[in-house]
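Slide 14.
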Amino acid sequence: MLTLLVHLGYLSYHWLDKTVSIPNKEVSQEYVNAISTMDWYEVIRSVEHSGKLLESLWAMDEKAVAAGIDRAYEEISILQYNDENALSCTINLAFYFAREYYTIIRELPAGKGFADICLVPRKLYADKPAAVIELKWDKSAEGAIAQIKERRYVAALKDYQGELLLAGINYDKRSKKHTCVIERITKSKGK
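Slide 15: predicted structure.
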């Protein structure tokens, strides 16, 4: 079924990480429309949680963001949740609703490395802050923020100007909890 949806253009296939995604806002909206008319309570609830998570990011509510990611992690079943790639899948699911406002870019070449996840506002939502999210596995959310700064990941958004959120997210394998640190900066074009 997934192969058919890819060939018909309803899903995009990403060779590098062997995943599929909804390719554009129109198809995404039809997906939301389809599930909202059915009795898909769990899916609708996940989309609502994703919207609240995005609002928590905008409000820089670090504890709410960490709790929202914990909730998304509990909703999915990843047999091996043991690296940043698995964490990245959880983050992308948790921030599903962000596709309404943002173009989401994974592993964006930036500065001295790759920014794990960048949220770039769509033109219609230029008032929303961009975000650079760095993921850590069993390290620290503060270390993730330090890496964003040290490796100049913000440089990847050279054409963007305005409010920018730096978010460091860490998963602690002992406590099985996520932590989050968020900083806000203002970026002028070209810097």
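Speaker note: The mean pLDDT is 84.
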